[in-house]
Amino acid sequence: MIDRLSKQREDEGFTLIELLVVIIIIGILAAIAIPVFLRQRENAWNGAVQADLRNAATAEETYLTQNNAYSTQSPIAAELVSAGFKYSDGNNYQGGTAAIDVTANAGADYCLIAQSASGTYFSYGSTTGLQEQGTTATCPAQ
Asked: In the structure, how many helices (H) and strands (E) does the chain have?
């Protein structure tokens, strides 16, 4: 009879301690995975804005060859769109609206600035190329 009771207890299921251990392991895995996921989202936003800046720079050069001056419309609008530029999704930008600000210097050079949804500013200068600006929106020295 004692053997029968001990066999019955073995087949009853998980103990409370076993369930707690599994829950703790799942919690540890979630604590590792969530920050990695959030960092990947920020990297995607930053990458999309950087790609837009490079594409806008190409459109600026196309506009220059057609009009003998860089576009000064800020934020980028019809002039560069007609030269082939198209924004990526607005959710990649701070505030949910795609916008790249343009600073042109008498047709001699230009600087493009945009802020990604992560809050980081990036710039692309005709003489400096792509640069991360951090938390402030400034054009590097041309």
From this structure: 3, 4
